[in-house]
């Protein structure tokens, strides 16, 4: 039947496969079984990585979405870098979409993204989150010539 070796770092630690037709007939089997043999002693002796975790936040985050019109040649990586540099208390940034078409001038595109803001030890107010969003928009429109909030 079909078979494969299991190797780790060039050392064979097991075999797996389907029993051949000869053995199936010899043991009067209806279907050919699959078999697996593994050296568990080798596996359990492998070094283990320490698992790390991050404690779940005690306070909710506040999400804000932005769609900004930029020249076609502006890359998402440039926008993301500017946002990360200017966004205080931002925990996440997520690319959402690019739009070209009605309402967006030729040679430009609308880039939509989402940001999650979170303060340590307290909840943010809407005014605080809006101020951080406004700061991001101001940074983008001043750093990228020809950009504007959509």
What labels would you give this structure?
150 residues, alpha+beta, 4-stranded antiparallel beta sheet, 3-stranded antiparallel beta sheet, 27% helix
Describe the fold and architecture.
Strand 1 and strand 2 form a beta hairpin. The model has no long low-confidence stretch (mean pLDDT 93). 27% of the residues lie in helices and 34% in strands. The termini are far apart. Helix 3 crosses helix 4.
Task: Outline the fold blueprint.
Blueprint: E1 3-8, E2 11-18, H1 21-26, E3 34-38, H2 40-45, E4 62-71, H3 76-86, E5 90-99, E6 108-117, H4 126-143, E7 148-149
Antiparallel strand pairs: 1-2, 2-3, 4-6, 4-7, 5-6
Helix pairs in contact: 3-4
Short structural summary:
The protein is α+β, with helices and mostly antiparallel strands.
| Separation of the first and last Cα atoms | 62 Å
User: N-to-C SSE series?
Assistant: EEHEHEHEEHE
Question: Strand content of the residues, in percent?
Answer: 25-35%
Total E-strand runs: 7
């Amino acid at each position: 039947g079909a078979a494969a070796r299991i190797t780790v770092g060039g050392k064979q630690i097991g075999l797996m496969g389907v029993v051949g037709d000869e053995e199936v007939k010899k043991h009067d089997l209806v279907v050919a079984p699959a078999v697996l043999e593994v050296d568990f002693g080798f596996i359990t002796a492998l070094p283990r990585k320490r698992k790390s975790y991050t404690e779940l936040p005690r306070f909710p985050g506040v999400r804000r979405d932005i769609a900004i019109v930029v020249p076609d040649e502006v890359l998402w990586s440039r926008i993301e870098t500017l946002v990360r540099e200017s966004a205080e208390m931002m925990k996440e940034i997520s690319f959402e979409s690019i739009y070209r078409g009605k309402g967006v001038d030729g040679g430009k595109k609308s880039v939509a993204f989402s940001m999650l803001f979170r303060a340590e030890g307290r909840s943010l107010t809407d005014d605080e989150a809006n101020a951080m969003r406004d700061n991001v928009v101001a940074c983008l429109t001043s750093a990228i010539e020809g950009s504007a909030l959509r």
